[in-house]
Amino acid sequence: WNVLLSFSGLVALIQLLFLPFFPESPPYLLLQKGDKAGCLKAMKQLWGEGNYHTEFEDLMKEKAITKGTKIMSVLEVLREPSVYPQLITMLLLLLSLQLCGLKIFQTANLRESIIPYVSLGVSISELISVIFCSSIIDRFGRRILLCGGYLLMALILVLLEASLLLSDQFLWMRYCSVVFIFLFIIAYGIGP
Hints:
- This protein is mainly α.
- The longest helix has 26 residues, at 115-140.
- α7 packs antiparallel against α8.
- It has helices spanning 2-18, 26-32, 36-47, 53-65, 74-79, 84-107, 115-140, 142-166, 173-190.
- It is found in: Membrane.
- InterPro entries: GLUT (IPR045263), MFS_dom (IPR020846), MFS_sugar_transport-like (IPR005828), MFS_trans_sf (IPR036259).
- The chain crosses the membrane at residues 114-137, 143-160, 172-191.
């Protein structure tokens, strides 16, 4: 278990060592910094001597479209009242996701030795949902995935509550609770 947790630290260390040798992102250099020469240099460094002028022209069109748009910092976004409903919704969802698993694992009376594997399963569920969502979002659109995700999450929560209520009578319902947590995380990743 300690090896699995330290793996993310190893990946971060590798990034710290090698990322300084890579150029900045060409869209960042052009759209954020306004550095055309730096953008072309970064494209040349990333893609070699190939023909990247089409991509550069696309970036120039995007820059022309967003010319009057002000880029906001994180603090400016937090001070903007028009985004408060979205921020509150996102914050509540993230907090509830962080807390729901621990309480349910305790309620389901899972053995302490199983909980690390269940936590690993939660992470795998998140990965599956990200991969699945990124492959279907263009086909179905954000609205359908968002509404469908919320409906699916509500259904899963009802089933989860039922499995928790019945877990004292049927021992196998404890494991159903864990499965419903995985499904809830997948539905959350696909939708909201």
